[in-house]
Write a structure and sequence with these properties.
This protein is of the alpha+beta class and 65 residues long. The chain contains two helices and four strands, in the order βαββαβ. Bound molecules: iron/sulfur cluster (SF4).
Length: 65
């Protein structure tokens, strides 16, 4: 799968980090880091992160085959 985060929308609330800690994290300066192409086993987490993001900045798409 492919994850994209629109950093123009992201307000660093961190809900995605709580919902999917294996994909999203913050660096030492509270900037969002994320795995752009995580394993499909994490799809549930990724969808949850997209659903809880208050500004809808997270997009989850199937991996290009
Ligand atoms: S939940 Fe949305 S706004 Fe908050 S850090 Fe994640 S991507 Fe950014």
């Amino acid at each position: 799968m492919q994850i994209t985060v629109d950093m123009n929308l992201c307000e660093s609330h961190g809900q995605c980090v709580f919902a999917a800690p294996e994909i999203f994290s913050f660096d030492d300066e509270d900037r969002l880091l994320y795995e752009a192409a995580p394993d499909d086993a994490l799809l549930g987490q990724a969808r949850k992160a997209a659903a809880v993001c208050p500004v809808r900045a997270v997009t989850v798409s199937p991996a290009a085959s």
